[in-house]
Design a protein that fits this description.
CATH superfamily of the largest domain in chain A: L-amino peptidase D-ALA esterase/amidase
Number of helices of chain A: 11
Largest interface: A-B, 64 and 64 residues
Distance between the termini of chain A: 10 Å
CATH topology of the largest domain in chain A: L-amino peptidase D-ALA esterase/amidase
CATH class of the largest domain in chain A: Alpha Beta
Structural class of chain A: alpha+beta
Oligomer: homodimer
CATH architecture of the largest domain in chain A: 4-Layer Sandwich
Number of strands of chain A: 16
Radius of gyration of chain A: 22 Å
Number of domains of chain A: 2
């Protein structure tokens, strides 16, 4: 039933980071193994071990059918104990699996606890893959010691590869910043290419730093960073059962903890973490299932950000708009129609929009300066910005998305992800 | 730029009515002509003339960028005068066309008024086709006398053909009922195959009857019938700028008017009108762009109908669910995930669903009786029913939709509709 994505599939203007560009983070070790969760030969189980005293916070899917590992993750984080490990499998989502699914997750956390010498509740579990299939729990438990034996600080690239499903490339990023006179490092990995939508999607992202961020600050920063990165992307409007973004701080840098928002070291750390999250989020859209175009939607002049966001999502989720981007066809009435469908009480006569620098619509109608050849020129590009001005306020929102191609249908009709 | 739909495209289990199955309605005459609105040789302009004293009511798109003809239709109906004609063009939506678009519509209504000897405000105008292009108004005005010269009571089939855009087949239906000792007749035509969504879509539907329904009753019946037919279908979740459903009563039957809801003649008339509307609505889904499967979604056990409707639309609009139907792949976790994404505060552990008669999920997890071979057998069919039980109330909702295929992408990437 499972087939690979089309051999010619490749992301839009995204080259994976070279392994040597991915920086070790003090207090973080990564190990992978092949648990043969599907009929893959590659590694599909990832263990991320965190030094004693590490803290983590996360944001998770809003899908009511959240997967068993998401339920357990939330419970473990609510204990507010130090977090010592993340364990992630690809190939099976462990969602819609009822009581057995929960029991399996507890077994995995227990096995990781034994392997690393910590409590089971200090382990955060994650899964991605097909829904409503039981985990091959024996093979997974057997693979945990193998993950442990391969733990290393320089294995971010292998980590990114182990969590891929329909992804065509691994996604990882690093930054180093100087703050308070010391170098602080942060690295992260993510996976996802379909089911990417309104509030996270089968999107898993893990970012760790040696900056000594306190747990209360992590709790604040995680949703703030998600709102600027993973929640600003959409591929197909579907939100998965397993979405998770976790930010971990190992306190590996031998400096005093960062506990207050007015700590001058926070701004560079926060900016670098946000940069990593945006890079990973955009990489997910660039590797969106079947994507051939990367589209930046900016909606401005709204009464509030929620209204701008609704308009951006209405454009991003319109199959007619998405297929027009795929076809490089400046069928721009479809964008106008999608704006009108956003459910906002807009005054159409105040709406304008641009394709890159080309003014297309002004006062709700086609701009007299607009020429189809200009529209065609922009639509033929692989990176396109659509800017919409609603003309009724100061708010704005940005959303990154991709087109809808034959590749999307092929991947999702042929591949049980 | 424009190409025809793929030559092998055909609707799912829908055979157009033979011309002789379409019944003349006393007081209704139909005429078509070729205005060459696009580079078509076929007739693309339809005039429906109604006898003096006819009444009509309509429901229209909720898209904020409604087309110029929709604006004028609403104005003309608000005059509450007798309606004497409908004029419909295919190939150009006259949407996003500003002041010129409105002036063009008034010119067309004026020309029809001259041709038929009625006031311009007694004419209801409609358009379907590409957005943001000016109408070829001279050619359209020149074609109106040709429409008038061809007016005939038996031209329902030609009428259905003249309003097609990406439709692969004409859509028309008739019923005859006996009420109050006389035969009453009703016939209708519709077009649409994409942009079919939450609250009508580029869906045009015109149903006329010789039953002497009063205008107040028409005003009540039109939204009631739409709620059971055209608002129960979705192809791609897009709502067009031009959606219109109009119900006209010519009073051609020489019987006393039907003015009250307790008139015993109303029930059979209303049922027959609803049957026509459901037949046309389902024909639109069966001819949905690229459709290979006809899916009936029934969501029951909700707290209210709106909640059931949200769950049904979440399933119907999930590209992952739609591509799984296309692939005949019982990847049923995608349905579970779509239910969880509906935005309702469901208790997942009370949710069950069936594919036809096969119980798939019970208490939020896979049914122990479920076998993949049963799922595959149902998914391979061209007509599939999904029944979801939410387990928290008595409300229910039905929605008809189709799958998402390569054909959809081809049609919308290649064809500027």
């Amino acid at each position: 039933m499972r087939r690979s994505p089309p051999a010619d599939a490749m992301p839009v203007n995204y080259t994976p980071r070279q392994p040597e560009e991915l920086l070790p983070v003090r207090g973080v070790a990564l190990g992978t193994a092949a648990a043969r969760i599907k009929n893959w030969s590659r590694d599909d189980l990832l263990l991320i071990a965190l030094a004693a005293g590490s803290e983590a916070a996360g944001v998770f899917t809003r899908n009511r059918f959240c997967a068993a590992p998401v339920t357990v993750c939330r419970e473990h984080l609510a204990r507010r104990d130090s977090v010592r490990a993340l364990v992630i499998n690809a190939g099976n989502a462990n969602a819609g699996t009822g009581a057995k699914g929960l029991a399996d997750v507890h077994a995995i956390c227990g096995a990781v606890g034994v392997a690393l010498g910590c409590e089971a509740h200090q382990v955060l579990p994650f899964s991605t893959g097909v829904i409503m299939e039981p985990l091959p729990i024996e093979r997974m438990l057997a693979a945990i010691p193998a993950c442990r034996s391969k733990l290393g600080a320089d294995r971010w690239d292998a980590a990114a590869r182990a969590i891929m499903t329909t992804d065509t490339v691994p996604k990882a990023a690093s930054r180093r910043v100087r703050a308070g006179g010391v170098d602080l490092t942060m690295s992260g990995v993510a996976k996802g290419s379909g089911m990417i939508a309104p509030n996270l999607a089968t999107l898993l992202a893990f970012v760790a730093t040696d900056a000594p961020l306190s747990r209360p600050l992590l709790d604040e920063l995680t949703p703030e960073i998600a709102a600027q990165s993973f929640n600003r992307i959409t591929v197909d409007g579907d939100t998965s059962t397993n979405d998770s973004f976790v930010l971990a701080a190992t306190h590996g840098a031998a400096v005093p903890p960062i506990e207050r928002r007015d700590d001058p070291r926070l701004a560079p750390v926060r900016d670098a973490l946000t940069e990593i999250a945006v890079e990973l989020a955009q990489a997910i859209v660039r590797d969106g299932e079947g994507a051939t175009k990367f589209i930046t939607l900016v909606v401005e002049g709204g009464r509030d950000a929620a209204e701008c966001d609704r308009v951006a999502r209405s454009i991003a989720h319109s199959p007619l708009v998405k297929t027009a981007f795929f076809a490089s066809d400046p069928n721009l009435g479809r964008i106008l129609s999608a704006i009108g469908n956003a459910g906002a009480d807009l005054d159409p006569l105040r709406v304008s929009f641009w394709l890159d620098e080309v003014l297309v619509v002004v006062d709700g109608g086609r701009a007299s300066s607009y020429r189809e050849e200009d529209g065609k020129r922009v639509m033929a590009k692989s990176e396109i910005a659509v800017r919409v001005a609603l003309g009724r306020g100061e708010a704005r929102a940005t959303l990154w998305t991709c087109d809808l191609s034959h590749g999307y249908v092929s991947i999702n009709a042929d591949y049980r992800s």
